[in-house]
Amino acid sequence: MIGASGLLLAGLAPARATEDQVAVLIEKLVGAAKPTPGRVKLDLPLLVENGNAVAMTVGVDGEDGVRSLHVFAERNPLPNVANFTFGPRSGHPRVSTRIRLATSQTVIAIAVMTDGSCWSDSVDLLVTLAACIE
Amino acid sequence: MSRVLINVPKSCKKGDILDVKVLISHPMESGQRRDEQGQIIPRKIINKFTCAWDGEEVFSADLFPAIAANPFLSFSALAVASGTLSMTWVDDDGHTQTELVAITVV
Amino acid sequence: MMRWVALFLCLAAQTQAAPHSGYADASAPVRAMQDDDTANPGFLWVQQGEGIWSDAGVPTGHSCASCHGAATGMRGVSARYPEYDAKLGHPLTLEQRIEQCHTERQGAAPFAHESDELLAITAFVGVQSRGMGVTVDASGPAAPFFDRGKELFTTRMGLLNLSCAECHDGLAGHHLAGATIPQGQPNGYPLYRLEWQALGSLVRRIRNCLTGVRAEPFTDDSTDLVALQFYLGARADGLKVETPAVRP
Q: Average model confidence (pLDDT) for chain C?
């Protein structure tokens, strides 16, 4: 069992990411431009039965001018989840996938627009059974 | 070669927005797990996915170990003219796989 | 697994309700994953199974398709498995029936238990019966296997000294550390379990429960393990086949 070996090796367990780490990653991404809450929508269940595969949709509704979308999980061992970019042949700036969540936490989405503005959304969720990523 | 399931309409009208759904069989080994001996199981994930229509970019993704095993991606493409939708992904071992879907736009 | 220990504190009468699929106990996102074939990872195995169905690269050169024709001819088959085999005098699971064709009629070495190949071909045969009611015939000469299976289902085992029935009849619908205890129905197998991050068989699922109560797992293909699956099949009477289902 992963849980059991995790206990034995607690001292060596990978450190969790922190809010600060995510803040640094976001700053690297958007520079001085502070992301404003709004426009981008992050969809995740609030209650997660199993963290191994959590359905996630992120997108900017009915809008052009989205350069990229970025998702971070504050309390996963590694905070990056995914970066998405939309080319000239893309339809809607929206994507669905399935992600791993190590524990209950806040997941943050950032949208970087072609006009240079940055938008954010976040979801606080509860994970009953964590993903086996530790 | 990974098993893969791609769902996209094979024909559509000009200006349609097509839903593209992709499922790829891949363990997405996170590099965070340990085996029974306590050794880290080496990371092996698909780290890059791109989709283009006749060479013009539709969508691309940088993926991290937080993406679930057997990754699923659903996005959309704008139908401008008949052509080939190509999807390419690369994993940590450098394996590259490309799948092509011909789409008729009327 | 510690969460299972909490059950010591629970006491409930053992009543057997009408069959009710584990699908109904899963959360909405898990059900949505099962409902959409283009998002259900189980279909990666179904696709692989389709390839095996028409693969003539076996010692006898006979693909499954060369004898059985189109796979749609398998519609209804998985709904009645495990099935009593009169010649052998005992029930066979669908996996065992497929292995029988694979070794005796294709001259091949058996697929390994729980291998992607065996799961894939079983899922491919199974999906043909999707939506049909489970009808396992436990009458006549098959009755002793049903009885044995029921006996195992109701026998307390493991360090936690719990029977399958105490959880899956008595406590079904109750909550165990955030998860709903299902009735333990077999109608979705092989299925994609998020916990496994893969497709797995009913045997693998039963092993998980045995480990949960800290009991010795049955050996592969043991008569008891088949009898237990036979009982589960008969107990699931009328439930729709969901192969490949998705469970947490």
A: 93
Q: Which chains touch B (3+ CB pairs under 8 A)?
A: A, C
What phi, psi does B29 have (nearest 5°)? -65, 120
Which is nearest to A25 in space by CA: A94, A71, A85, A76?
A71
The token pair at C68 is: 């059985």
Q: Which residue has the tokens 């050169």?
A: C61
In this structure, what is the dihedral angle of CA atoms C53, C76, C83, C22, given to the nearest 10 degrees?
Answer: 100
Interface A-B: count of C-beta contacts within 8 A? 117
CA pair distance A124, B9, nearest whole angstrom: 36
Q: Is residue A82 scored above 50 in pLDDT? A: yes
pLDDT digits (tens, 9 = 90+) for C30-62: 999 999 999 999 999 999 999 999 999 999 999
Q: What is the CATH number of domain B3-30+42-105?
A: 2.60.40.10
C5: how many CB neighbours lie within 10 A of its CB?
A: 13
pLDDT tops 70 at residue C10: no
Residues spanned by the domain of C117: 43-127
Residue A101 sits at the chain B interface (C-beta within 8 Å) = yes
Choose among A98, A65, A70, A72: nearest CA to A84.
A70
Note if C101 is an active site residue.
no
In angstroms, the CA B62 to CA B50 distance is 9
pTM: 0.92
- ipTM of model: 0.94
Q: What is the CATH class of A16-127? A: mainly beta
